[in-house]
Amino acid sequence: MITDDVPFDELAGSWDEIREEYYDLRNDAYDRTVLDCAARLAEVPGGKSAFVWTIGLLMMAPYVAGAPGDGVVSAARSALEAADGALRDRPCGHETHPYQEHEPEFDEDLGRQLCGLYDSDAAWHENHPREQWLCPRNVAGLARIALDIIEPGSATDVPPRLPVGAQDTIESLSALLHGYPEPGTDIEAEIGIHAEELRSAEPADRPGRLLVVMAVAWYAASDFVRNPAVLDDLISALETTLPHYADARCTHDRHPAPPRSGPNAAALGIKLSSPAGRALHERDRTRTDPLDQLLCPVALTEITNDAMRASVGRREELH
């Protein structure tokens, strides 16, 4: 028995629970489940049952990307890399595979789809035939998606997705900037986190982090923030940023204006703060402005100065 007498739907359900509760860090039961799945895949990375354990690890990958117990990440990565290596070059006659269009929102269907793949007599009404899902090259592609979730940027031929937790950050910021922070939110600490993210950002991520701080600065300049130290933190981060654009020059006729809505500006900033987010932006170019104009150093200098003026003005009001 592939599941040691555990009904297959229960096994898939246990993986789906971990997918949904991925933020439950260092859960010993979850760790054991991941390690068991990884061990089974490592035993037969190119076998007929590889699709089961690969999809299982894909479902649990957001949890693995967090802070699981010792050895969990390495075991999952090793098993997935072995499956990818064993399966990706197998011959097939398919022009396309499901993994090539597997977006993050489709993860919630994996448990149901896995049960349908395991039971060949089950009804199948999915976007691709069952044999394409079971194709070794598709299973290898799903393994690479899981690897890319665990280690963002490790696979370049899979649909880009935001790093684990980025969407949660967008939603938390949206609630805060709409004036209705999520229960338990420490507003001052939240603002401080984003100021520090800007200070310590890598060059490619800095423009996105600047957009987030711009949105947060608008909020901090309102009556919602009354602690001058919060404004000092934002001003310090912005002062640290300005020298990076001191020699900014460009030949653009225009620069796209950043979103006027604080929540929208913050969401765009979080998206542009990671390579995958920037890839998503570029993929949607028909509906978005080119990155070289949106993130032009001249435009970023203007954004920094505007955020600085708002923050300094509010600090002076509070002193």
Q: What would you say about this model in short?
A:
This protein is mainly alpha-helical and 319 residues long. The protein contains 15 helices and no strands.
Tell me what the structure shows.
The chain has 319 residues and is mainly alpha-helical. It folds into 2 domains: 8-150, no CATH class; 166-318, no CATH class. The protein has 15 helices and no strands. The radius of gyration is 23 Å and the shape is elongated. The N and C termini lie far apart (71 Å). The mean pLDDT is 93.
Main features:
single chain; 319 residues; mainly alpha
What is the secondary structure topology, with strand pairs?
Layout (H helix, E strand, L loop, with lengths): L7 H13 L7 H16 L6 H15 L7 H16 L22 H9 L11 H5 L1 H15 L15 H12 L9 H13 L6 H15 L7 H14 L20 H10 L3 H9 L7 H4 L2 H22 L1
Helix pairs in contact: 1-3, 1-5, 2-3, 2-4, 3-4, 3-5, 3-7, 4-7, 8-12, 9-10, 9-11, 10-11, 10-12, 10-15, 11-15
**Helix coverage percent of residues?**
55-70%
Task: Sum up the overall morphology in one term.
Answer: elongated
Distance from N terminus to C terminus (CA atoms, Å) equals: 71 Å
Proportion of residues in β-strands: under 5%
Mean pLDDT: 93
Number of helical elements: 15
Low-confidence stretches: none
Q: How many DSSP-defined strands?
A: 0
Largest sheet: none
Class based on secondary structure composition and strand pairing: mainly alpha
The number of domains: 2
Q: N-to-C SSE series?
A: HHHHHHHHHHHHHHH
> Nearest-angstrom radius of gyration?
23 Å
